[in-house]
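User: I'm preparing a small set of examples for a lab meeting where we compare how different chains pack in three dimensions. I only have the primary sequence for this one, and I'd like the structure in token form so I can line it up with the others. Please keep the answer compact; I'll paste it straight into my notes.
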Amino acid sequence: MPDYEVIVVGAGPAGAMITKELAERKFAVLCIEKEIEVGYTNKSTAATPLDTFETFDIPRELAFEDLCGARFFGPNTSCKLEFSQVVGRVLNFRAVKQYLIKEAIKKGAHTMLGTTVKSGLVRKGNLVGVKYKGFFGEGTLTANVIVDATGPESVLAVPLGLWEKKPQQLGVAFEYFLENAEPDRGKLGYFLDFFMGSQRAPGGYGWIFPTGEHEVKGGVCKLNPTFSPPNELSQREYFDKIWREDHQIKNAQPFEIHQCAHYITGGVEKSSLDNFVAVGDAVNKVHPIFGEGVRSSFYSARFAAQAIDEARKKKDYSQKSLALYDELWQKKWGTNWRFSTLAYKALYSASDERLDSMIDSMQKMDHGIIERLYLGTATKLDYLKMMKSGSSLIDRKAMLAIVAKLRG
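Assistant: Understood. Below is the structure token output for the 408-residue chain.
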């Protein structure tokens, strides 16, 4: 008899969420976390739409101020999208992870902190558990299902062959958490500001995301590692330009520095094996365009929990049974992810001239289309309109092939 029904490795957003989801279904579940404190590291910017709070029952007070739109600043042009309602907030990332794991504990989940999973435990060719070492000593634990939720480290999924790490797919980011800022307000809340172009964020974007009346998160990410302009600067130096030029932060100073890296691949097609699933960033569930990973990690965790629950009912933890997880993911995000992956490849290698053209076209586009793309609810008509507006950036033939498979 195994020690647990499920062992979850990692207590980040995906790991904490799936632990909670399984505990709610009365699973005997253990969450192993390498840090001594759930919530650390606190490195995600974590802007998310209001849909996230409603879908996953997360209290809105676990986030910062209301957001009412976005502004895009290109090399020589800009675009302002202000919505008629509040559309999102920036999550208090540490608080959300602690909330999820506490809710899981209340429902019976066990935790093992300060402990690193070294590898999977294989017997007679079958994955049956994990080998661990840390605060609670060294040993092995067994379970019917092992969940890799270790983020980009992917300590189990990569060795098990689900995907291969390639340096040319590694996106990196850094940000400051800044005090004494003066973020601009719209009618209903603050704006998410994005900065693009060769002089501010080549191969990615810079950002200023307000979290309060005098606080913002600001940084730069590079989402296309293969795009390198002549005399490229460091991300810190690019953000220094934004810092000097933008009136919202010119007098601000940092009280935290965050750094992170993610593999931008458009996701892994198969995220399950016999007795095993991988969730969130462990299988690259990071949105190719926006670089957002928290909300997609939550969906990944929920779908995996549903698949594990169905597998328990059938007493069958084979890959064929657990593949329900991949089916649910593809149904929700498949078309959006494929569309966004094509757009990402063009967007983050575009010239300044083409970026300006795209930003100009966004100003003319129905703002609801952009919002639906972000939410994953875009229709076939939405995709066709985006193709028309962004035709100078995207591979039209490939895009048509994707849209043709979409119903409605």
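A couple of notes for your slides: Residues 6 and 29 are 5 Å apart (CA to CA). The first strand starts at residue 4 and ends at 9.

User: Perfect, thanks.
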